Amino acid sequence: MTSTASDGSFHLAVDLGAGSGRVVLGRLSPGGLVLEELHRFHYPPANDGGRLRWPFGRILDGLKVGLAAGRRAAGERRGAIESVGVDSWAVDYGLLDAGGRLLEDPVCYRDHRTDGAMERVLRKVPREEIFHRTGIQFLQFNTLFQLYVHVRDGLPAGARRLLMVPDLCHHALCGQANGEYTNASTTQLLDVRTRAWADDLFSRLSLPREIMPEVVPPGTDLGELRPALQRELGLGPLRVLAPATHDTGSAVAGTPLEPGWAYVSSGTWSLVGVERKAPLVNEAVARANFTNEGGALGTVRFLKNVMGLWILDSCRHEWEERGLSADLDSLLAAAAAIERPPGLVFPDHPRFFNPESMTAELQGALAETGQRVPDDPARLTRVVLDSLAFRYASVVSTIEALSGEAVPGIHIVG
Fold it and tell me: Rounded CA gap, 71 and 74, in Å?
């Protein structure tokens, strides 16, 4: 970027989390990168037609409000928006028809449609073959299993293109229907070595290879903002750029990683791993169920998913419904004041994936392991945080064993 970027060139980054998004204005100044959050918006998944779906219209509305806010903020600084890019969580996708129309809202990965799907897939293609081909950990909600079930139940008539959530956003903004590499790598349908779709997996599982998009690297210029959106939002022909569209890919790219250090990208999920120059695919990695996801600038993110702050967020919603205080700062302060750790659970147990009551599952896990069962929010908050910390430490120790390299430190971002 040239020095003129600090004088009036602004860029918008849209970060979509699992339920809420934010739009951030960025520019280069003589002192470095300057970021300003302009807009936050929410789009919790809801049941629709028997499936838990993301309301994609609300996501697009949030994008447009954020773009308009960016135009105003840049104008106030006598500048203009030059580019926009979107990242999001992984694995979820939508289907377009031949005219580029979204046929149905994307199904949320927490929907139960993939229950038992992994076992059915593995009866057709052995687990070790899939891992050797893709290098991706086995999670029941991976795109591979979602698409397998979708095909079994019947794709909507006229489906011509599958796009991951950030690719859907870019299509809405500029009309381009590509699949960015970092998010494509999480699908368990991409060859870990060639970085192209694993055609043999599609064939052996009777999946529609023809609906998959061309894979493009992060940093690809996808084109200009649609003229209709330029007029609606009062913007010029800004460029739509594909960042590392998997949010963890962008988070790791933005982390000032020191050589050999691990990262914990903490959010609804926690991603615990290291950045490598090449994938690590062998029997030991497969047994540990680690993953090799695409990173920015040709890197590989060697990591493991940990359940993350979803557990605490779910508890907070329950406490709020019961009329209890669930203010995060207060909960954290109260949890820190507890002298002795009240207990530990294994946060990656399937019972915590999407239960009817998260607090009941936590208490059940404590009771079943002979530990005291607290009922107050502060102690349960401490249980969650201590359990996550112990799990992070365990994952980092496993990374050291699998890679044969010591991890001198950990960056925590999120």
Answer: 5
CA angle 272, 275, 276 (to 5 degrees): 135
What ranges make up the beta strands (E) of 115-261? 161-164, 179-180, 215-216, 221-224, 239-241
Assigned token pair, 54:
């993301």
Among 87, 92, 111, 247, which one carries the catalytic annotation?
Answer: 247
How many Å from the N-terminal Cα to the C-terminal Cα in the chain?
26
| Alpha-helix residue ranges (DSSP H) falling in 193-322 | 199-204, 227-233, 247-253, 283-288, 310-321
Structure token digits, residue 379: 């102690």
70 three-state secondary structure = helix
Question: What's the whole-model pTM score?
Answer: 0.86
Query: String of b and e for 68-81 (b: at least 16 CB within 10 Å)?
Result: bbbbebbeeeebeb
Residues 326-375: tens digit of each pLDDT: 999 999 999 999 999 999 999 999 999 889 999 999 999 999 999 999 99
**Is position 247 annotated as part of the catalytic site?**
yes
Cα-based torsion angle of the residue sequence 130, 133, 134, 135 in order, rounded to the nearest 10 degrees: 90
Residue 96 to residue 94: CA distance in whole angstroms: 7
Q: Are strands 270-276 and 215-216 parallel, antiparallel or unpaired?
A: unpaired
Cβ(298)–Cβ(311) under 8 Å? no
Asked if 378 and 335 count as a contact pair (C-beta separation under 8 A), the reply is yes
Provide the token pair at 49. Answer: 């037609």
- Residue 306 phi/psi, 5° resolution? -120, 145
Radius of gyration of the chain (CA): 22
Separation of CA 240 from chain center? 20
Three-class secondary structure of residue 168 per DSSP: helix
Q: Are 1 and 239 in contact (CB under 8 A)?
A: no
Reported as a single tens digit per residue, the pLDDT across 103-135 is 999 999 999 999 999 999 999 999 999 999 999
Q: Helix 358-368 and helix 377-403: axis angle, to 10°?
A: 70
